[in-house]
Amino acid sequence: MTEAQTPAAAWYPDPGGKHEHRYWDGSQWTDNVADHGRQSVDPLTATHVPTTAHSAEKVQKQVQRQAGIQATGPGGGTLFTEPVLVVNQKRKLIELNTEFAVYDQQGTQIGAVRQVGQSSAKKAVRFLANVDQFLTHKFQIVDVQGNVLMALTRPAKLVKSKILIADGQGRPLGDVVQQNAIGKIRFALESGGQTLGSINAENWRAWNFSIKDHAGTEVARITKTWEGLATTLFTAADSFVVQIHRPLDEPLRSLVVASALCVDVALKQDDRGFN
After folding, report:
1. Domain of residue 258, CATH code
2. CB atoms closer than 10 angstroms to residue 65
3. How would you class 130 by CB atoms within 10 Å of its CB: exposed for 0-12, middle for 13-18, buried for 19 or more?
4. pTM of the entire structure?
5. Any domain includes 110
6. What's the number of domains the chain is made of?
7. N- to C-terminal Cα distance for the chain?
8. Confidence of residue 5 (pLDDT cuts 50, 70, 90)
9. 241 with 173, same domain?
């Protein structure tokens, strides 16, 4: 949030990533925060941007050797302009706070996904019981300075997932809606009451996805990459490469970027429950 934008006084996604929302008084961030509709006071601290230990060489290997994508020219250095995004989950033996770092094809970090709004009680419940799918989860997509670009909400689910996508100021952009629970998983990309595209799993394990526009033309592809035996056995960390084939108009571009970064949240984080 900058003075040049002069946004109106209102509740916005917390730029610190600690809470769901923080109040902007029209000129600066205040200490007033809100989580799950409950307000409290918490001074703004340094912005948290998740990162991982992936070297540039390792990221390039993910792109070229594992995903089979040949290096292309520079794409502008942002989540919305790069043709290739490499998404690596932060490795943790116990997964209580989901975080991803996002790199360009050369291995430079350009953004991140961080989970927000989790109380200590909720973390305790997640540690003691396999109930992730029955809880509402909130995430922020941020740039490397910690500026909130999009906010994602995955409501509690029984069988099918739904992701609500908003821009950095909390204005709705669209939804990612799971269409089926058996066979090859499919999601619809919806905005303003219209279906703009779809995400289609290419096998029942839902490791690789094809993202198509409303006409059925592939506009992007998600490829899961191998992180090694130790990571697979002892952590829940996933890694995948997103290739966007051509420039896309809004809001499809934002929906494609958001869905590519949240498909793991919609499916993989629930592998202990029903998918």
Report:
1. 2.40.160.200
2. 10
3. exposed
4. 0.76
5. yes
6. 2
7. 37
8. low
9. yes
